[in-house]
Design brief:
about 0% strand; about 75% helix; about 80 residues
Length: about 80
């Protein structure tokens, strides 16, 4: 089960790229307000993940990397 749920930095980079593309589509189709709402939701998710990781004992770059994986690592499963 642990191997199945493993995420990688490469997958997280892909997730970030997909997220940026989706926010761009929202900006083009729905306007800047929708892009800010979707981008803000992603930023909030990252901030909450970072707070949780720091609360779990990680600090500095390790905390940011873990929050990045938690936020964008889903693309590795596609």
């Amino acid at each position: 089960m642990r191997e199945m749920l493993r995420v990688s930095v490469g997958g997280a980079h892909a997730g970030l790229a997909i997220t940026v593309f989706v926010v761009f589509l929202f900006a083009v189709i729905g306007g800047a307000a929708w892009a800010l709402i979707v981008g803000g939701a992603v930023a909030l998710w990252f901030a909450v993940a970072l707070i949780m990781v720091v609360g779990g004992g990680r600090r500095g770059r390790a905390a940011v990397t873990r929050a990045y994986l938690l936020t964008f690592g889903w693309a590795g499963w596609l």
